Amino acid sequence: MSSATDTQVPAAAPVKARRRRSLRRLSGRDRVVVGLLLGIPLLLDLAFVWFPALATLLLSFTKWNGVGSLHTKACLPNVPSILNNGCLYGIQNYHQAVTVYPEFWPAVRHNLIWLGVFIFVATPLGMLFAVLIDRGIKGSRMYQSILFLPVMLSLALIGIIWEFVYSQNLGLINTVIGRNGNSNAIDWLGNPHLNLWAVLVEATWRQAGYVMVLYLAGLKAVDPTLREAAVVDGANAWQTFWRVVFPVMRPINVVIMVVTVIESLRAFDLVYITNKGINGLELLSVLVTSNIVGETQRVGFGSALGVVLLVISLVPICIFLFQTFRSESREGQS
Amino acid sequence: MTTDSSISGSLPRVRTAQPSGTGRRGKPRPWGQIASQLFLISASVLWLLPILFALYIALRPYSETTKYGYVSLPHSLTLKNFTDAWSTSGMPHFFWNSVLITVPAVVIVLALASGVAFVLTRVNVKINVALLIVFTAGNLLPQQVIITPLYRLYLLIPLPSFLSDSGLMYNSITGLVVVNVSFQLGFCVFVLSNYMKSIPEEMYEAALVDGAGLWTRFWRLTVPLCRPALAALATLLTTWIYNDFFWAITLMSSGDKRPVTSALANLQGQFVSNQNLIAAAAMIAAVPTLVVYVLLQKQFIAGLSLGSSKG
């Protein structure tokens, strides 16, 4: 792994030595240190993150209930499923998911709605908070602290806290709008047409604060001379933000895009604590989970659903990696 | 490093430009200021309301809220819900589980990630960038992508009995530590390697001249210099791992081994007839994160900012 081509001491070759990753001879002991420092974490990462990610892909082409062993024979058609276990199932899991599994399309739709609300409501709201706070308005530190509070709380806790707001007969909203009688009470979290939106309010409540903090960090790092120059050129606040500040914040915008997409794919805790993700709150993440912690284990099928999540999440991940490491590899080559 | 000190350190201009708020944008715009204030005040009220509302319910007796509803003036306030939730539901036990998972996980992940980040930034192993990508991308995957095989894997890996009474990774505290460490490694490696790149090369040259080996350069030179980043990450990780719900729900079958955050789901079933107790239990479970919020907010935000910006 560690190559040792440059045997000179730094002082003898100042130009080469100044390169950040200058090659130096490593003693035997140093090689062991490198091996351990890099090897152990890499092994953990490969064994418990990347191996399972790859295994999800492979298992998605099998039919397996988790009992007995996997083999590479193809599943037989028209045989009771008990005899057809651990076999290769081709793309049947995917086919079943999109054709006969009743929860699949609702879950996809809910995930898309979730993503849409994050993109069009939570993220802009968080950005607006950040921009207003960044203008040094009076009390900005206090606002920042308050709006950021939900980010500290676990999503499970947020789900519980909001149940009091939404409670059918005693809750805050129904009492305030006078709909807390038994006959006309609105069941915010139970009605399958309403509960997704109710939970999305909770999710937005947290996500906006998260985006705000990330965006504030980006705004503070913008070179103030850029803004001054824009003002000298006669730009108003709106133009300064959209034409000057926003473009130079490209890296942070990509981070926020990634956070927005990944968080909406990961969404799980809120719906699980609310009603275990059924009856209007189905999400892909819940379907994956219910295939392993549920009564019947359908490992292959659950994996196929996991692959759907994987494929979608690879898009923002690749964009992020491309933008983050493009400059890095150039540095490395120069 | 807090965001504030770093900005005022490197960009003192921000500070001088800040107070005038209006001057920076040219003409003073009083209406804009008032609108902004009104908007932020109403947002703040909306943001605090659900938390304070739950706290209010936790402070009121069950008999009273069932009679008058949650939105009513208090006839009596009591801490009884808190003491009941604490003593009848085994919350101390769940808290202890959280400690047993969170503390080792944070320490191990920071130790391992500093090592990786050091090697990737200071030793040429040819594939530095590729390895950095492997770590970073691993952290970005949704947990549900890897859970199905991970669950099977946890059922297969045996552990000695002093690490797990189940004899397996599944349903053990060790198993949860391992998954949290593996999953958070990527983020920490990314942040720490960005941070370590900013350490001037001259310091390492001086150490080399003094004959310092690689380990000394790592442990005696790099790690102390990274203390601000490590403190920020420790705050962030403690909160995240404490708040974890998904791993504990899926990789632990029995309720009594779960950490407090996921035990809340059980408590909800247990106290279904007394919502005020649930509110109190939720408030108790929030205490550690609220302590971080009050005392270490700057560290937490610094951690997030380090992760989102390149060093």
Please name the defining characteristics of this protein.
heterodimer, A: 334 residues, mainly alpha, MetI-like fold, two-stranded antiparallel ribbon, 2 strands, globular, B: 311 residues, 2 domains, 15 helices, 75% helix, disordered N terminus
CATH superfamily of the largest domain in chain B: MetI-like
Query: How would you describe the shape of chain A?
Result: globular
- Elements of chain A, N to C (H/E): HHEEHHHHHHHHHHHH
Largest sheet of chain A: 2 strands, antiparallel
Q: Unreliable stretches of chain B, pLDDT < 50, 5 or more residues?
A: 1-26
Principal-axis shape of chain B equals globular
By DSSP (H or I, 4+ residues per run), the number of helices of chain A equals: 14
Largest sheet of chain A, order of strands side by side?
1-2
Uncertain segments of chain A: 1-23
Which two chains have the most extensive interface, and how many residues on each? A-B, 130 and 121 residues
Structural class of chain B, by secondary structure, is: mainly alpha
First-to-last CA distance of chain B: 12 Å
Radius of gyration of chain A: 26 Å
Characterization of this structure:
- The complex is a heterodimer of chains A (334) and B (311).
- With 334 residues, chain A is mostly helical.
- Chain A is built from 14 helices and two strands, in the order ααββαααααααααααα.
- Chain A is globular and about 75 Å long.
- Chain B is mainly α.
- Chain B has 15 helices and no strands.
- Chain B is globular and about 75 Å long.
- Classes of the chains: A mainly alpha (334), B mainly alpha (311).
- Chains A and B meet through α2, α4, α5, α6 and α7 of A and α2, α3, α6, α7 and α8 of B.
